[in-house]
Backbone:
């Protein structure tokens, strides 16, 4: 007996993957109307979960997914309309199934109570029968045009029944297949006749060759395929079965598979995207026996237009490699990207290949250098020259290798964005608002670690926007805006940063209320002349995150400080701009990667510290005339009409033997969150890319230090925590302010 | 017997009452101290450390141990046994320390390593309560080897209780 339990982890993994596919598929169906690929994806995911669960003996899970599958199957075959009610139910079921997977994973296989409820509701829906289609045929058919290639089977059948001819009697579906092979088809060893024979096994086949392209006999190339075919296939088969037959010739022909109805030949021709102009008019228009079917009992009330639109849609979903409608493409890309997010990273093979190549070169360079090293016993100028060349090359290789390795950690931000369609859908239902979610720049790549930590802050921001920013349809109408609010999530690269924005076209922030609150909380003084920006960004203050603020101010209170803290932990910052009545825009700016940053080495006494380049504004030599002192203690430096406090690193860190004469050293002006301070150091040294290593791993947090890194000579250098030093500085300032009230310092 | 006891102590990270343990001993001044050998990761020569600002003097700083940043504690000055003279035999004993934050790696600067003893649990004497720089909390017990007294340290207690608290209290920031 094989112990299956070792495969459980893989099973759970696949379940979650499948559930994600189902969820995003269902959401796409909801937003964009049905599309056969989408339903098939969902169906396949449900099917594999069912199969796998049964294999492992998780009967509750397989039973439940079976019921879901039944419902999906009806949608897939077009026996049931894809409408909101069904989708809602399926989404709930996905959640429920996820819960079941989770609890099973935790070792508890008893199904949660909600299973019974959902099972009941799905069964009820199933029992209501395909009549669901008939009940609202026109609406459903036009609203969500089609699902599978087999969508309108009853519909078609009903209509064709009237025109029924004999040749393909007994079949339920009638397919028109346009098969236009490229010239080289025969050279690849594919034989159309064999394809037709296989098709004939599926049902009743009519083959009509189009010979119009055959050239004169003297120029004919016997190896070229000049023929194209119109096929009519009747019988009880699905699009997938037909596609399978053509599997071998995909990419070597133009292929269109349409479900046809004898009544609508012209629309069909127009609808078909890839039909080559020269092809004969569609079968039904010719003297071919009109399609016929012994109709399955089908609603006679179905309107003609619905059939048309279904077919129009279905013809868009060509099976050949031609790109489908752009939207569908985007969806496909999104669902591929959504595939997985766990401890492992799926990496493009090209990235790995590049890496392998780099390592190869590195090895060569290294062996070259060691060779020279051995030769160094007889040092001469040529040897040195070669050594230098080798070192330069090694440096280049190493840098490229480093960049490539970093590439591997990069993932598209769609991993973080993917959860939002569902969240927005659910929350807008709950809030009774109509909100359209726009995602842009989903393919922007971000470091995996950044990506993981970005999720929660983004959820916070999106919820805030939906809850407090975007207004209800009534309010929006009253203020002359479209009823549907637009919430946009965008990502893009800007310099070495990645910029993520959450934009809504809602009411915007209420400047006065925030100001009042800030004054009452003592965060600012009422007399302060504050820019709008300063005021809006006050909402990121911890004091604003209390519950009463949420109802008090126009919202945006809950956890904004948490958002800022999370973003800051990632080495980024977050700002907000807003315009009353026009909406607001939260901008998150993050470093591309956490792994490696550019650092400036500075010397204080005998110690070397590193200041991250991003926080340095400029480095200046101190002019004595610009130095000022307050109360004999705080030193200030006048930099272009702005006074900035000076912090002597040697004093802050107690470093001996440091330069004390201000004019003998340098002032490094650093900035964090709009505040500036000048760090007094002895000297600037080189710049270096630094890999941040935490001091806390083996030691503890140290004030003013954000971490450590290893220098070229193997020693450890500490990295300054600029934000921390600034806070320290501000605290020191405050305590001095108390002694000397109202001492305003820039 | 020895291998058995090794097995057990690895699981518990403590020597069970009826088992023996192996200890690596080192010299501080005229005294000999020991740590559980299973905690010792490696012994390396003394290398200059990068000082960490605003920490007690006995935190010598951090060193690069094959890419890991490891803090170095000078046990001599920690125990107030006169100033350390860094010489040829001065070594760093790198140990694993278990605590609330999980496993940490730290280095102890000692005058030199001495020996490895297998100590029978029954011969382990509890440390008497005494004042001074080394609290009896940090001592797992005393043992006599060749008429010498060896002080067996409890590194977890020493680091988590003793050193951490001292830094906490003394920290400027």
Residues:
């Amino acid at each position: 007996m094989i112990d299956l339990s070792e495969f459980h982890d893989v099973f759970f993994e696949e379940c979650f993957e499948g559930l994600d596919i189902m969820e995003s598929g269902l959401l796409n169906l909801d937003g964009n109307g049905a599309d056969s690929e989408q339903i098939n994806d969902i169906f396949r995911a449900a099917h594999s979960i069912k199969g796998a669960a049964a294999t492992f003996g998780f009967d509750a899970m397989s039973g439940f997914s079976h019921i879901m599958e039944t419902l999906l199957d009806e949608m897939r075959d077009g026996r049931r309309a894809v409408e909101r009610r069904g989708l809602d139910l399926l989404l709930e079921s996905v959640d429920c199934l996820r819960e079941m997977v989770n609890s099973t994973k935790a070792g508890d296989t008893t199904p949660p109570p909600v299973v019974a409820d959902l099972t009941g509701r799905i069964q009820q829906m199933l029992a209501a029968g395909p009549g669901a289609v008939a009940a609202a045929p026109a609406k459903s058919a036009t609203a969500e045009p089609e699902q599978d290639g087999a969508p309108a089977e009853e519909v078609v059948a009903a209509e064709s029944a009237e025109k029924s001819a004999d040749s393909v009697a007994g079949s339920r579906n009638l397919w028109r297949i346009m098969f236009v092979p490229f010239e080289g088809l025969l050279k690849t060893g594919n034989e159309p006749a064999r394809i037709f024979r296989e098709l004939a096994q599926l049902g009743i086949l009519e083959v009509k060759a189009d010979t119009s392209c055959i050239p004169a006999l003297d120029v004919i190339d016997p190896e070229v395929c000049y023929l194209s075919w119109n096929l009519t296939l009747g019988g009880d088969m699905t699009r997938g079965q037909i596609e399978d037959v053509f599997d071998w010739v995909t990419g070597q022909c133009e292929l269109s598979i349409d479900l046809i109805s004898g009544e609508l030949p012209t629309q069909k021709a127009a609808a078909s995207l890839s039909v080559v102009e020269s092809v004969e008019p569609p079968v039904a228009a010719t003297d071919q026996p009109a399609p016929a079917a012994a109709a399955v009992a089908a609603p006679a009330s179905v309107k003609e237009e619905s059939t048309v639109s279904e077919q129009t849609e279905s013809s868009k979903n060509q099976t050949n490699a031609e790109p489908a409608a752009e939207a569908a493409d985007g969806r496909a890309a999104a669902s591929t990207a959504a595939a997985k997010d766990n401890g492992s990273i799926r990496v493009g093979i090209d990235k790995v290949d590049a890496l392998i190549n780099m390592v190869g070169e590195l090895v060569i360079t290294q062996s070259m250098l060691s060779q020279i090293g051995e030769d160094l016993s007889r040092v001469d100028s040529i040897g040195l020259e070669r050594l230098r060349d080798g070192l330069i090359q090694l440096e280049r290789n190493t840098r490229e290798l480093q960049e490539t390795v970093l590439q591997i950690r990069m993932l598209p931000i769609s991993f973080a964005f993917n959860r939002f369609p569902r969240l927005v859908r659910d929350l807008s239902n709950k809030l009774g608002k109509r909100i359209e979610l726009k995602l842009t720049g989903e393919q922007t790549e971000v470091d995996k670690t950044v990506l993981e930590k970005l999720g929660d802050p983004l959820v916070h921001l999106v919820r805030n926007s939906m809850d407090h920013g975007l207004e209800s349809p009534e309010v929006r109408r009253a203020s002359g805006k479209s009823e549907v609010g637009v919430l946009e999530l965008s990502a893009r690269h800007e310099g070495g940063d990645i910029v993520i924005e959450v934009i809504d076209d809602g009411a915007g922030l209420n400047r006065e209320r925030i100001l009042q609150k800030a004054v009452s909380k003592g965060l600012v003084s009422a007399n302060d002349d504050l820019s709008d920006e300063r005021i809006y960004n006050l909402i990121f203050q911890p004091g604003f995150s209390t519950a009463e603020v949420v109802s008090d101010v126009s919202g945006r209170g809950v956890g904004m400080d948490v958002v800022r803290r999370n973003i800051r932990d990632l080495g980024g910052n977050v700002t907000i701009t807003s315009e009353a009545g026009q909406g607001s825009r939260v901008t998150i700016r993050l470093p591309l990667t956490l792994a490696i940053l550019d650092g400036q080495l500075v010397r204080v006494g005998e110690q070397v510290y590193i200041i991250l380049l991003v926080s340095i504004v400029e480095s200046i030599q101190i002019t004595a005339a610009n130095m000022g002192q307050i109360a004999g203690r705080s030193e200030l430096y006048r930099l272009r009409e702005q006074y900035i406090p000076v912090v002597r690193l040697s004093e802050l860190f107690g470093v001996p033997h440091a330069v004390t004469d201000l004019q003998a050293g340098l002032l490094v002006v650093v900035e964090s969150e709009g505040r500036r301070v000048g760090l007094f150091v002895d000297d600037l040294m080189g710049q270096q890319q630094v890999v941040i290593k935490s001091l806390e791993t083996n030691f503890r947090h140290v004030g003013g230090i954000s971490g450590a890194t290893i220098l070229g000579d193997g020693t450890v250098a500490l990295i300054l925590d600029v934000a921390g030093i600034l806070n320290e500085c501000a605290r020191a300032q405050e305590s001095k302010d108390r002694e000397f009230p109202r001492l305003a310092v820039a | 017997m020895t291998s058995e006891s090794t097995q057990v102590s690895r699981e518990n990270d403590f020597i069970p009452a009826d088992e023996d343990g192996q200890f690596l001993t080192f010299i501080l001044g005229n005294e000999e101290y020991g740590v559980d050998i299973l905690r010792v990761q490696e012994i390396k020569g003394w290398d200059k450390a990068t000082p960490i600002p605003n920490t007690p003097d006995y935190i010598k700083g951090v060193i690069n141990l094959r890419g890991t940043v490891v803090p170095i504690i000078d046990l001599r000055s920690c125990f107030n046994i006169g100033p350390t003279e860094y010489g040829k035999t001065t070594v760093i004993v790198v140990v694993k320390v278990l605590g609330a934050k999980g496993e940490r790696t730290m280095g102890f600067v000692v005058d030199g390593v001495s020996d490895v003893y297998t100590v029978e649990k029954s011969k382990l004497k509890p440390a008497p309560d005494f004042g001074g720089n080394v609290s009896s909390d940090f001592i797992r017990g005393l043992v006599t080897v060749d008429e010498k007294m060896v002080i067996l340290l409890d590194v977890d207690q020493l680091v988590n209780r003793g050193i951490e608290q001292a830094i906490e209290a003394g920290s400027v920031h």
In short: The interface with chain B takes residues 607, 652-655, 693-700, 702-705, 708, 710, 714-718, 728 of chain A (CB under 8 Å). The radius of gyration of chain A is 34 Å.
